[in-house]
Amino acid sequence: xxxxxxxxxxxxxxxxxxxxxxxxxxxxxxxxxxxxxxxxxxxxxxxxxxxxxxxxxxxxxxxxxxxxxxxxxxxxxxxxxxxxxxxxx
Length: 89
Ligand SMILES: [Ca+2]
Ligand SMILES: [Ca+2]
Description:
Layout: H1 2-14, H2 19-26, H3 31-45, E1 52-54, H4 55-58, H5 62-66, H6 68-71, E2 78-80, H7 81-88
Antiparallel strand pairs: 1-2
This protein binds calcium ion (2 copies).
One calcium ion binds next to β1.
């Protein structure tokens, strides 16, 4: 659970709960509420509402920022909702 270790470290170091970290934690609790939260979080981060997250938009969240190139599987510099979902789930 390398990712969880990383997240715990982020929380301790930054002393704030990250949006994506709480989503990841929710993933272990309930799939239905989780799916809605993923979409809501994506929309919240998508400041210009163009349906994708630019590196600047994703940079609002430390976990997304650190893993951006890994999440951007088609390497187009934008995170689609599908890419975001695959990373969260
Ligand atoms: Ca956007
Ligand atoms: Ca992409």
